[in-house]
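Q: Structure for this?
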Amino acid sequence: MSQRRQTVQGILIEESVEITTGELCQACAVRREWLVELVEEGVLEPEGLVPEQWRFPAESLRRARIVRRLQRDLGLNLAGAALALELLEENEAMRARLARLSATHAADHD
Amino acid sequence: MQFKDYYAIMGVARDASQDEIKRAYRKLARKYHPDVSKEGDAEVRFKDLGEAYEVLKDPEKRAAYDQLGKGYRPGQEFRPPPDWDGGFEYSDAAGSGGGFSDFFEELFARRAAGAQRGPGARGAEMHARGQDHHARVLIDLEDAINGAVRRITLEMPEVDSEGYLRTRQRELSVRIPAGVREGQQIRLTGQGAPGLGRGTAGDLYLEVNFRPHRLYRVDGRDLYFDLPVAPWEAALGATVQVPTPGGSVGLKIPPGSAAGRKLRLKGRGIPGQPPGDLYAVLQIALPPANDEAARASYEAFAQKFDFNPRAALEG
């Protein structure tokens, strides 16, 4: 394969990058109806009034994929997966805060 | 190829009921789900678990596995009997497919692959864009600061010339742009699964994760490190040399600095618009009182000060 040895350059998905409904469906391998449900559940908050005009913030990609995996692997319904996602994010933020503030202290208490 | 003990992976007895197997799966799946678990080997364990459940949840596959597995121990070299391929027929063709072990593929994937044999059978008029793929790349903090080229190995499921579903390893060199942050995604257009017919290839999304750094803790583009100072440096102020990703610089410690105080070095974190900052978190290090002269100094120190560090604890 010709591309094997060459270096590929990607597009860094910044917060400022916005994703369309079609791109998000493709990237998560989901149907549009499922994304609509996610928006109705308040998990994703796109700008724009109708799905054709929706623009999702970049972090939607990660969030949608986590919800998808939780639903598929753990048999959660959408509300359950949305709750789990929020708790996971809260947990992650607290871990990061702990690591940032008190790496030394945490090590002392182990 | 080594024999895999699916019962041991799921922690159930060989005569467990289908209900017990389902309960065990649900419980372990919650524990080892890679999005939930913080254990280092969660991804591997979850994959093993999924594979074990794929077999044991299905009475047909379970029976076949039980029959084949008689007399084998986990890890033992395993060879399926020569007539294996003809013995069993499976109703669902290895649904999720791809990503299971060689052991699983050997036992159950042949039939599944047979069903997919011959792309021509799909009809020459079929065109579809290839699937997007996702992968993770681990980089060092220095790579995020300076940019780097990293070679990554991807496992791509594909149908080989014999019509079998195989995972093929593929290497790709990817430019990691300077300024990337933990958890950010890089989209590589056209590096996902090939399209069908005249369909274009899918994209590859790479999630960037950082290896832990010896010195710095990372928060977005900001970096934190602990800076030990002597008590007199904290009390009187000092200028000390501190390590930054761009090299050593002099940092001014203001007089009267307490432990835990954060001193900011603006713009010396991960580059970007705007660049992150570097924070030195002060730690007060005490010289040891391990000889006569040192003890005398501490005693003189104590006598000089009318200082009660626990004033706040007293009612």
